[in-house]
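Posted in: Structural Biology > Protein-Ligand Complexes

Title: Requesting predicted complex, protoporphyrin IX containing FE in pocket

I'd be grateful if someone could produce the 3D structure tokens for the following input. Sequence and ligand are given below.
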Amino acid sequence: MSEATPDGVSYPSYLALDELLSLQRPRSQPVHPDELLFIIVHQASELWFKVILHELDAVVASLAKFDAQRALWHVGRLNAMMRIVSSQLSSLELLPPQHFLQFRSFLGTSSGSQSVQFRAIEAASGLREPHFIAALEAHGPVPEQVKKYLDQPTLQDHLLGLIEHEGTSVKQLYVGPGPTTLFFLAEAFLEYEQGFAEWRFKHVQLVERVIGLGTGGTGGTLGARYLAKTVSQRFFPKLWEARGEMFVSG
Ligand code: HEM
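-- Reply #1 --
Done. Output follows.
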């Protein structure tokens, strides 16, 4: 396939850099030098959330076609993206509490808990627990982008459907002859689960490091204490149970 080189396309125009680089708008007065970092880590995370959702859609489309190999490839990319989103938080660990205090009031009631894309990722991945639904409803009606995923099967539903289609069971993935492609896929999903939990853990620690354990969030929660409870939420309970069952019966 020959490569088209349309006239007038340049690096800045292709990437819409003028628009992109004009979107960092600190609100502190006078502008606090650390607010730019705070905004950029959030904006960059939202960009990654966008492509993570895109990748999740590709995972689901592959599973719906019972294409385990392709699903495995997409989950591998998903896992690479989760590692990047988590590692970005490290730069905010170097935001000293006294600096954040100087511009925190300018955030008003804005909070990461209003991130529609984050909630959409959680919904697409499979959270349905009352705790999650309560968090969803805390900021008004559930956004359409999230509702769409709540009405669809979870990742675990899709995986179990594929396992059944292949005439096997979760238990067989671990005790049968292998390792099979389905085993690698199940393990890749566990890596996704762990990657997500790592983001949550790193975020709780960041929050505690910057605003302390007992400080409430700008979004109205108990802050780090609330966030710590979310770390144990699971997308693939059946994969975790399968391990326990092996040891109980063995
Ligand atoms: C200094 C840095 C940060 C602090 C102090 C902070 C603080 C908080 C707090 C206290 C909450 C609980 C909700 C509330 O009451 O506001 C929260 C939730 C959240 N934050 Fe952050 N955050 C920081 C950085 C980030 C970054 C970089 C992201 C990336 C997008 C992020 C995304 C989220 C999300 C998605 C939630 C909802 C989590 C859930 O409910 O499970 N936060 N944050």
